[in-house]
Amino acid sequence: QQQVKQSPQSLIVQKGGISIINCAYENTAFDYFPWYQQFPGKGPALLIAIRPDVSEKKEGRFTISFNKSAKQFSLHIMDSQPGDSATYFCAASIHDYKLSFGAGTTVTVRA
Amino acid sequence: DAGVIQSPRHEVTEMGQEVTLRCKPISGHDYLFWYRQTMMRGLELLIYFNNNVPIDDSGMPEDRFSAKMPNASFSTLKIQPSEPRDSAVYFCASRTGFNSGNTIYFGEGSWLTVV
Fold first, then answer.
1. What is the pLDDT of residues B84-105, one digit of tens each?
2. pLDDT of B1 higher than 70
3. What is the pLDDT of chain A when averaged over all its residues?
4. pLDDT for A7-40, tens place per residue?
5. Closest CA to A36 of B48, B19, B24, B35
6. Mean of pLDDT values over A40-61
7. Is residue B87 a contact partner of residue A30, using CB atoms and an 8 Å limit?
8. Alpha-carbon distance B100 to B95, whole Å?
9. B43 within 8 A of B63, measured Cβ to Cβ
10. Are B65 and B92 in contact (CB under 8 A)?
11. A interface mutation test: which of B104, B108, B111 has the most A CBs within 10 A?
């Protein structure tokens, strides 16, 4: 069974809008929560990551919000651009390496 | 660095044939991972190596799958005999040793179709 549940499966947002993707996990031993971005025909690439000792991390237009008590984390893409159209995967692991991925969210940004 | 290099990028084979996928990790990386991606099951970890030694192969679906890492710069994933349900994208990934925040880098994948 998937250890990380991701939603929604897909979303469409207008250029300049905010994209929000949510993930939930059960295993409290997870201590590393990365987000990967994947373009068609390419491998996943690390976008941003967070550890449970912080509640938010921002890198440019991308922000991770982390709620340890709820065992949930989310990715916010601010000022969404057509170039952000991709599939986004949340993931979780213990000690960085054995990643368990969510099912993925396909984001389409309309110009 | 050229990144993680996988070959072949695309392979179409007939059911029952042997398939060998190849991977060259990023130089200096001592962890190597094989993932499989399908629409139904998403990204699944099949096996990973540390310093060329298999550490966890619990994700290998069945005995038809095997993986080797004869040296630090080369790994193979073999399927014998192949079946249509093995059709998927197989990703190789690598990272440096066990330190906080080390990124796992993925190759571009090997697209396998078994007919």
1. 999 999 999 999 866 656 789 9
2. no
3. 94
4. 999 999 999 999 999 999 999 999 899 999 999 9
5. B35
6. 94
7. no
8. 12
9. no
10. no
11. B104
Inter-chain touch A97–B100, beta carbons under 8 Å: no
Q: Is B49 left (phi over 0), alpha (psi -120 to 50) or beta?
A: beta
Token pair 């000792």: residue: A53
Residues in chain B: 115
Q: Considering only CB atoms, which chain A residues are within 8 Å of B107? A: 43
Q: Do A41 and B108 lie within an 8 Å CB cutoff?
A: yes
Q: Quick one: B25 exposed, middle or buried, by C-beta within 10 A (0-12, 13-18, 19+)?
A: buried
Beta bridge pairs of residue A71 = none
- Whether residue A51 contacts residue A59, with contact meaning beta carbons closer than 8 Å, is answered with no
From CA B22, how far away is CA B7, in angstroms rounded? Answer: 5
How far apart are the C-alpha atoms of B37 and A87, rounded to whole Å? 13
CB atoms within 10 A of CB B3: 14
pLDDT of residue B33: 96
Q: What is the pLDDT of residue A68?
A: 94
List CB contacts (< 8 A) between A2 and chain B.
Answer: 42
pLDDT band at B2 (very low <50, low <70, confident <90, very high): confident
Nearest residue, CB atoms, B108 vs list A42, A51, A100: A42
Give chain B's contact residues with A (Cβ, < 8 Å): 4, 31, 33, 42-45, 48, 56, 91, 93, 95, 98-109
